[in-house]
Design goal:
Strand order of the largest sheet: 1-2-3-4
Helix content: 10-25%
Strand content: 35-45%
Radius of gyration: 15 Å
Number of strands: 4
Number of helices: 1
Length: about 80
């Protein structure tokens, strides 16, 4: 089974969020995934030794080009433009 490949990654200034723009195995579709760093307190360090974990609370629909996908991400996610 082939998987989607990351073509571009854009990080927020605070490094606590990022967007990965990926292409489908056949190279015809693009979509973006939003990743957010979730810090944890000391009591959860046993389960999260890095003091947090990444989650993916949002992903886009499909786009026909990398540029269209990136433009949609920048339009939909205000923090990407800051």
């Amino acid at each position: 089974m082939e998987s989607w490949v990351i073509k571009k990654k854009i990080e927020a200034v605070d490094k606590g969020r990022n967007v990965e723009i990926c292409v489908s195995p056949d190279g015809k579709l693009f979509r973006y995934y939003v990743h957010v760093w979730n810090p944890v307190d000391e009591s959860e360090r046993l389960y999260h030794p890095d003091m947090g974990y990444w989650s993916c609370p949002e992903m886009s629909g499909y786009y026909s080009s990398l540029d269209d996908c990136e433009n949609a991400a920048r339009s939909n996610l205000g923090w990407l433009n800051s």
